[in-house]
Amino acid sequence: MGDDSKKFCYKCGKELTGDIQFCPYCGADQAPQSNTIKTESKVINDTSNNPNNNNINTQNVDSKTWVILDVIGWVVFVFSFVPGLDLGFLVSLALGIVIQKKFNHKGAGMGLWIPSAILFGILFMIGFISGFLGAI
Prior knowledge:
membrane, transmembrane helix, Zinc-ribbon domain-containing protein, transmembrane
């Protein structure tokens, strides 16, 4: 009776034979705790060590996309200083969050949404207070 379940390295995705401790292709430790879900997730997310991966073009497009979104976010951020365009801070805030969450560029995303949120909050409070004082 043979082993019907195939095992794959959680790091490089290559098929493994037998019960081995380390992957013969990339050297990753094949701990018994690593289950199929973790392995599939790692193989999908880690494209750098797998030369046979077909998602390389998609990753390059994503990398260009986040840069374009970052540039658009900063342009909108700068134009938000023009009186009447302060809602642009919300647009750059949203783009920063998308860059951080969808494209996994934490530094670029946070670098955009944090200043946008701070300035939007300050301008919102100034507008609220001036509107309140104007009503008195």
